[in-house]
Every structure is written in C-alpha cells, then in structure tokens.
Design brief:
Length: 413
C-alpha cells in the first residue's frame, strides 16, 4: 500500500474524532429500540442527512411485516422501521456493500437512555457500541475514501436497517438482494473490547411451541382433563436433549407460560426456544427432529401441538474469499501497527445473512466496546478513529485489488 497516498486521509479521519464522538452521543440519546418506530424515524432522518451528501442515490425502503406467535400463544404482526439505502458509482466493476442497523435492544421505557462519558477513554449509552458508534465509523471511512477517491473501480451501497436486533426478518429481502449485487461486505457490529473481530458464526433459529390440552376441574373431573403443561414439559426435555456442545449445537429453552388457577387442569402452555448450530447440515436434521418430537408428543390422547418459527440465519462459514478478505483486513491493521485477530462466535448478525447470499464479509468493523445489550454497554472512544482508519484502508485495498477477491469468490462459488 502506498503510505503517502493514505496518510493524508488518515490524518483527516483523526481530525474528525470529536465530531464522531459528539454524533455518537447525540444519536445514542434518541431511543431507537426495535419497536419504537417513531424513534427509529428520527434516527433514520439523522443518518439520512449524514450519508446522503456522499451518495448518488438515496432510497427509503419498507421493511416487511412479520407474523409471529407470541409467548402467550397468540398470533401477532410485528412492524419494523424503514430501511435506508445509499449508493455510489453503481456501474463500477467492484461493488462493496456496507451494512449497519439503526435499532437497539432498549425499548422506550427502559431505564438506560442517557449516554455518558465516564472518563477520557470510555462512554456508556444505549447503542454507543451496538452500533451507532459503528455507523459513524462507516460514515467517516466513506467520507475519507470519497475525499481521496482517484479510482472509478469501486462503487458502494450502504444499507441501514431497523430490525437487526430481532433477527432482520423484516429487512432480510433487502439485504439478500443487495448482497447478490456486491463483491465484498463490510458490517459495523462492535469488535470485542480487546479489538478482536468475529470470524465464523453459528446459525440460529427461534421457535414457539404451543401445547393444547383439555381444561377440567382439578378436583371434580381431574381424569377428563389433559394437562398441556405436562405435555409441553415432555417436549421441552426432548428439545433440550438435542444440545451437543462438541458439535456446536445448543438449544436454549428461553421462555415458558401457561396455566391458570390451582384447581384447573391447564389447557394451554407455550414455550419459546432458540437453537444454534455450527454446521449448515445440522439445521436440516434438527428441523426434521423437531417435527418428530411434536408428532411423538401428540400421541397422547387429547394433546395437540403447534410449532412455529424456524431457522432464519444459517451458519456463517469462512469461504476462501472470506478468508482473503480477513487476511486483507489483518494486513491493513498491520500497517497501523495493530495486531488484529479473528475469533469464531456463537452470536449471529447480518454477516450470517450476507454469507448465506454468497457474499464474503467482515462483520465486526465497528467500534471497540462491550457489555452490549446491557445497561453497562460501553464504547472505547479512541476506537472511533482507529476503526474508521482501518475501514478506509480496507476500502482502498478493495479499490485497488478487489478483482482478486472476485476471482477468489468465483472459485468458491
Ligand atoms: Zn448490533
């Protein structure tokens, strides 16, 4: 990499440090829990005004509504916020897809709402790490890239969705279509506090199982009752037994509900559970096993089961093209004297979705931080600048050598 060419933009990124921090704090102060559509609209307006000046095309897209069975067994429709799309140089031969989410896990009535600077290195606040700070990293890297842009070889699309924290079910169609048009994906989830990035990721599925029985007076007509809680318990024990740590399969029984008064045989019970797998082929085997468990439990007279949900994020395995992209990221970090490492994780993100669409991607290019999804979420301030520089260098690398990655990708496909 030509050091002189990249030095100036890297200095410019440094000069943006205070602005990045200020904007992260301002955006953290606007609640954008996945179900707070008004808050998401405000945050989307802010991001739109930041990204639009860089782009040739700006689009505001609708998320799909999603039908779910809730923890009480009722069918509900979930609505999600808008999806923003910005693109530049669509006709360039090498296309990069940059993704991030505007939603957080903190609802409007959560106690954690106010960002705070703890000391000169750290801020806490909802979404500072996951991922409002990350979106500022993305923006600043793109700004630096466009300021220094001399090549017309690289075009980009930015997708900001509003439902990542609930699994991106409403935006997966947009992510998939964009991934199919791109040659490399960059996602701005936070890195670990020590700077480690995520490599391979497990796949994940959420399910709801509703057991229906027959209610009866527990004293007068006990025998005519069919206890839904007991039927569900039987099913849950079988589900839990599918966990196989060595093979990377976990079943988490996450939530149960059911039953009424002491003297009533319960006629309904609901269980919600999450399954994660390391190997793509295991998802199919487990899906078939789930059907069998339901069928077995229904053999008890008067018991009926309803299973809904499914695997929505396939495992992200590391393809040859993905490995090349990881190697380049490590190289770019080395030029900044950073010893960058990747580590596999059981967590999922939109990196799983992009990989499922065949797109090599690095999905933890955001800030360094930790305790995400808790009231102690924090971001390391210096990482705004450091990771914006890293992304800028990576964009630069893709602009000059992207063809190689495309070739690698074709070999894999
Ligand atoms: Zn996130």
């Amino acid at each position: 990499m030509n050091k002189v060419i990249v030095q100036k933009p890297c200095h410019w990124i440094e000069s943006q440090s205070d602005i990045m921090l200020e904007q992260t704090m301002q955006l953290s102060a606007i609640n954008s829990g996945t179900h707070n559509l008004a808050g998401l609209t405000r945050v989307a307006e802010e991001f739109s005004s930041l990204f639009a000046p860089l782009a040739d095309t700006v689009e505001v897209l609708d998320s799909h509504d999603i039908e779910r069975v809730d923890h009480q067994g009722s069918a509900t429709t979930e609505r999600y916020g808008k999806i923003l799309s910005f693109s530049k140089r669509k006709s360039a031969p090498f296309q990069v897809l940059l993704c991030g989410h505007m939603d957080t896990v903190f609802p409007r009535d959560h106690t954690f709402q106010v960002p705070q600077q703890i000391d000169q290195h750290t801020v806490t606040g909802p979404g500072v790490a996951d991922m409002k700070g990350g979106l500022l990293v993305m923006l600043t890297a793109l700004e630096a890239f466009e300021r220094s842009q001399t090549s017309d070889q690289l075009g980009w699309q930015v997708i900001l969705n509003s439902d990542e924290e609930t699994g991106s079910l409403g935006s997966s169609h947009v992510l998939k279509a964009a991934a199919q048009q791109a040659h490399a994906g960059l996602i701005y989830e936070p890195a670990l506090a020590d700077g480690t990035l995520a490599g391979a990721r497990k796949g994940s599925g959420n399910f709801t199982l509703v057991a229906h029985g027959q209610s009866a007076h527990a004293g007068r007509e006990f025998s005519s009752g069919r206890n839904a809680i007991m039927a569900l318990t039987d099913a849950m024990l079988q589900l839990a037994s599918l966990t196989n740590i060595q093979r990377g399969i976990t079943v988490n029984i996450a939530r149960i509900s059911g039953g009424q008064a002491f003297n009533v045989v319960p006629d309904q019970a609901v269980c919600q559970f999450n399954i994660r797998c390391q190997l793509p082929e295991d998802q199919q085997v487990i899906a078939a096993t789930l059907q069998q468990i339901v069928k077995d439990c229904e053999c008890s007279e008067g018991i009926r089961m309803e299973l809904s949900g499914g695997f929505t994020r396939p495992p992200k395995a590391i393809s040859a093209a993905n490995q090349l992209l990881m190697d380049w990221t490590i190289d770019c970090a080395h030029t900044m004297d950073i010893d960058l490492r990747f580590k596999d994780t059981g967590g999922c993100c939109d990196g799983n979705n992009l990989a499922a669409a065949g797109l090599a991607n690095i999905d933890t290019l955001g800030v360094l931080g930790g305790n995400i999804h808790t009231e102690k979420e924090f971001m390391l301030i210096d990482s705004l600048t450091q990771r914006a520089q890293l992304s800028f260098l990576l964009l630069n690398r893709l602009a000059s050598a992207g063809e190689q990655l495309r070739a690698g990708e074709q070999v894999v496909k």
